[in-house]
Amino acid sequence: MATGWSRARTRKYELTRGMHRIPCDEPHPTEVATGRSQFNFPFSAPVPPAQGRPMGAHHGSRASISGPISSYSPPVHGGGPGGPFNGIQRGHMRAGSVANAGATRPHGAVPMPQFSPQRQTPPVPEHQASPGAGPGGAAVAQAIRSPPPPQPQLGAIPPQPQQQQQQPPPPPQPRVGRRQYAANTAAYIAGDPNLSAPSTGAAGGSSHSHSPSQSFFSPATGFQDPSANNNSAGGGGNFFSPGAPGAQPDQYGAGAGGAAAAQGYGRGGAAPGPGGPGFAGAGAGAAQAMSNQLGQMNLGGGQKVQASVSTTNLIGLPLHPAELMSMPPPPVNLPPHLPGNVQASFSTSETRNADPSYQRATINAVPTTNSLLNKSKLPLALVLTPYRSLKPNDPEVPVVSDTVIARCRRCRTYINPFVTFIEGGQRWKCCMCNLSNEVPQLFDWDQEKNAPVDRYARAELNSSVVEFIAPTEYMVRPPQPPLYIFLIDVSYSAVTTGMVATAARTLLESLDRLPNDDGRTKIAIIGVDSCLHFFSLPAGATEPSMLVVGDLDEVFLPKPSDILVNLVEARSALESLLSRLSDMFKDTQNVGNALGAGLQAAFKLVSQVGGKVIALTSSLPNIGPGALKNREDSKVLGTTKESALLQPQTGFYKSFAIECSRSQVSVDMWLFASAYTDVATLSGLPRYTGGQTYFYPSFNAARSEDALKFAHEFGTVIADPIALEAVMRVRASKGIRMSAFHGNFFVRSTDLLSLAAVPMDQSYAIEIQIEDPISAPFVVFQTAVLHTTCYGERRIRVVTQALPTTSSLSELYANVDTVAMATLLADKAVERCMQAKLEDARDAIMNKLIDILGTYKATMTSSGSGASPQLVCAENMKFLPLLMLGLIKHIGLRQSAMIPSDLRAYAQALLTTLPSQLLIPYLHPVFYSLHNMPKECGTIGDQGVVLPMPLPLSSERLERHGLFLIEDGQNVFLWLGRDAVPQLVLDVFDVPSYAELRGGKMTLPVLDNAFSQRVNAIVGKVREARRGPYYAHLYVVKEDGDPALRQWALSLLIEDRMEGLPSYQQFLGQLKDRINDKSF
């Protein structure tokens, strides 16, 4: 009997096949988990109770997150008993289980031993290490102090019987209950050989096909073993997902006996085996993945582990996006035992070295000489996000509340896990300058309990990220209260677009969320059009009064004590004002915008104390100080003259920003554009004051999507805890200095950065230069941020990172952190745009890639400088060319006559401030297929909402009957093929057919069917999956719909050709040809 879908009145579906009725209602997700996947490890030392709410506390609006991202990985046959993973339990694959091997301290306040010759534990002899371990296996064996139990060793591939590897897996079993939407059919069931699936060109059979077989490991996504070769058609690597005990292996792909291919991740094909593209030998990928995880926990062996470089040919190499999403930095192989029987770090805490989400280096091994660094052509830099938001499963930053701060007398380094105690523990040796310092008298004493404590349980000796409560000697003045000045455009365009009403309503609803635990927060509201509108809110009053100042050249403040008021004392009048603000100006015809004068008035209000100015403007400033002209010219877009539009139009805003920075005043710009707004000029205010720019092109609050996005982001930002009056300095070991700085701050001196405020999740990059040869086996970088919390405390956040040194060129390449490298190069490209032309920035990216890859080829391969048909690089760098292609094709840098200068300037502002977790998808978007996703996707798993496996960014994966999701962290696109069956359109959009569906910006409806709820869960997960306040717009893109929207969505598929720019394979060919033509 034919298979079909029958609709019941209750909108539930049943599949009818023959005489059997199989229910097809998948479990409805009960919640949308919104956790973020990060490489965070638990803090093993006891944390003192925090005084007040620390910086980096959980966001109130994002605290209902159930877990990290979980990508669905379909299991395959061969993973059970006797298969490639014989004897490995899922629990043993997690990084946290390394503690069971005895290599880490158990949780709790367990005293660390004094390191003396009598108490030192001798290292395990090298001959006792487990033989045959893969990369990282020897290190684990050295760390284990007793013979391990008979179980698989982490970092090593378990023995695999040869006869079992050569046996083909059993044919796939029919899977029922998974809805599939196909062309010319109502639906079909994946894996059912009796039902015919439509043919697809997903993989396309082109030279750039992708097979999900590369290994990757992530605590959120599971582990895939490339050595488990599956030669059946459509067989990929072996996947399994944590949290699915008892699930029998299954396979999505073409089965035996002519079974139709399930529409899983593209057309099935034979999985490449060891020795094929992307494989460095049997089990190398799995061993390297485990080694990376162990390296993040700094579990080393009895001697320094030399990182070996693995060379990969990029030509024809399939890259799997899932590997990029879960790729950790290279392991940090610190020397555990130095001459004199001294350890690089006495602490065995898993948090003793910096988590990459706080601080990471472009190279996880520092060259001993500057000549070696120059020879490698690799830039050395740090990428910092000292104040990142925390998710529910993230450990809180430990706070040292006893005001006992031990610092080196010479270099002023804060004590950290990498110092050495000498003379019976009475003194400690600085890990940067080797100076001997006295241990503070109260270092081993609990002042609250009036009792001795274990020194080695102190937070600063176990955690790389720690926060000290500063004593009075760190204060120039007592901590000041947080001041918020809201400067709101009330001109005609701002009122008619609904910006004023939306901002006032959001602020009114967020008053209880503003940081005000100590009751000292003050607030002021100023309206701006051709005049300045001050609002008097005296304490105890229930109604506000408006004071208008028309003199813009000599701005003065009427009743300043009643304009800037205490949030608690003036609450009634403030609520009355916000509820009536939009109505006060509803009949206005004033089109003037005296933004510059308004900023000067706000500065006068807070200059004596410091604070935050939040400016919301809906039109180009056109009157008074800082007036701007509309200079946009469509004729120069895409030409060499376009770069002038990205330069500030006037020096007024930069000069004003520097004045603000000196007075500890930070400015955030919220720009709502119905026409040209000159983002390039106005974004200079946040750039020099430690603020942030937010841009809403074509904003109209009548569209619920626009109002929701602004309200979400505005409410989140103003409720975030912020650090005020901040200065940041990065110290490093002898012979190293900081040479260049990138980010939103003002450089006060050669190495001191002034930040009037430090927003959450804002990133900075600092380039490093080696001045003198380094003889030490490791170096230390320490970032210190002295700031005032919005809760009235002066604190110092310290982030410490230790990296080994090397004199080996190959070890430098093996330790490149691709994510940090891409972040730095994006910063440098934007800086080049501001100093020169867009074309120069694109050429600089290309030339840097050529230098790096050409030098690698000349020094690391047998072909040397001669011509070669291959394009080789280190295995850990294989994603760098793709990320740089994404940067060249990004709207911030791409050559195009269709990109408005405001959009380009805003994109460049994001490129320089987004943290790595947001920047990578901004350069390399994520691409999912939804119409044929496995039934587990979109449901709640043990680690949150299960996401499909990402696809390569190529249009050859698009199917005419399919539904796809593309997102870059700022926007979400749902691509619908023109041949989509009506049932799919009805189930997702509640529209009877494709022809009746309207494309564009929309809110996805939640319907009474499981597939709709799964799609909504995935969209919700994607929106909340990363750090930061951004709320992505959702656009529905029809294959034959609006050409501009269609082109925008397709521009995110960076592996395709676009507007004269090459495809990924063509880009690799260009790199190869230019390297062959150049001598290195």
UniProtKB/TrEMBL annotation:
Domain Gelsolin-like: 945-1016
GO biological process assignments: COPII-coated vesicle cargo loading; intracellular protein transport
Location of the Sec23/Sec24 trunk domain: 479-716
Gene3D superfamilies referenced in this protein's UniProt entry, alphabetically: beta-sandwich domain of Sec23/24, Sec23/Sec24 helical domain, Severin, von Willebrand factor, type A domain, Zn-finger domain of Sec23/24
InterPro entries, sorted: ADF-H/Gelsolin-like_dom_sf, Beta-sandwich_Sec23_24, Gelsolin-like_dom, Gelsolin-like_dom_sf, Sec23/24_helical_dom, Sec23/24_helical_dom_sf, Sec23/24_trunk_dom, SEC23_SEC24_subfamily
Compartments, record wording: Cytoplasm; Endoplasmic reticulum membrane; Golgi apparatus membrane
Residue ranges of every copy of the Zinc finger Sec23/Sec24-type domain listed in the record: 405-441
GO cellular component: COPII vesicle coat; endoplasmic reticulum exit site; endoplasmic reticulum membrane; Golgi membrane
Residue span(s) of domain Sec23/Sec24 helical: 817-920
Keyword Transport: yes
Residue numbers spanned by region Disordered: 97-177, 191-261
Domain Sec23/Sec24 beta-sandwich: 724-806
Keyword annotations of the record: Cytoplasm, Endoplasmic reticulum, ER-Golgi transport, Golgi apparatus, Membrane, Protein transport, Transport
Low complexity: bias regions: 128-143, 153-166, 196-232, 239-261
Entry's family note: Belongs to the SEC23/SEC24 family. SEC24 subfamily.
Protein name: BQ5605_C001g00186 protein
Organism: Microbotryum silenes-dioicae
Upper lineage: Eukaryota, Fungi, Dikarya, Basidiomycota, Pucciniomycotina
